[in-house]
Amino acid sequence: MTKKIIILTTILALTTISISMGLFDKLFGKTNSEKPATTQPKVGHQEEWEFYFSNVNDKLGSIFVDLGLQKVAPLTDKPNVVWVSIKMNNPREDGLSSQEESAILGEIEDALVDKITSKHNSIYVGRLTSAGDRDLYFYFGDTTLYDKTFSEVMVAYPKYQFDFGTKEDKEWGGYFDFLYPLPQQFQSIQNRRVIDQLEKGGDNLTKSREVFHWIYFKSESDREKFLERIKNDNFIIVNKGSDKSWGEFAYSLQIKRVDKVDQNSVDEYVINLWKIANEVGGEYDGWETSIEKD
Asked: Global pTM?
């Protein structure tokens, strides 16, 4: 049984992902996917919590961030970034949180977020889990006695060591330059969302199927350069079009190939097509596939 699902995903840029560490450098040197259980002060945005993996000082890191804040940040009444770093007692060998410790870490996180956001003019923006530490990040107005609030919460968890700090960050560089995903990371998030929808539709992702791609170009010659670059990759041309009403990128190309649709496979071929399109002056616009049920 086959059901078509349309996916349009756009990559804006591709950047090497490598971030420097150090509690302060984590933000300025450059997991759990559930939404926090606590309620934050309303700041006029729709919360959009997502997680992704990153290379943090050559170590695996999991970042959990409210993408929705991008539409309203920076908030002028919250010019200070505040963080608390909790040392995990039983991390995995790769430095991420272990299954046996995830529940208590989630409890600590909820307690901190609830207390901090209710007691101070602050908002929780995200966290990093890496190298055996879990770091929570907030943006504050007045930071007076923030350290006391952290201590009041952590006294209930005497087995956990913690550290904290604050820094003025009016432009929210810590959010935009560290926590917020780079274009390649954001594309991987988008791909995962689509794959989740495939699975919700009853697709177990084991069956290869046709995957369609759309790319747009400024000129016919750019389109031909792209086709030359992928001529040995077994893609089939579905359609070539042109329409001046599309604006600057008035020349379209639709191609297809039978591919796997697991996360790693999708990320690999989508990002490769984007890179080639970018190199010839084009724009990779998105992909489409079908839900396949056994």
From this structure: 0.77
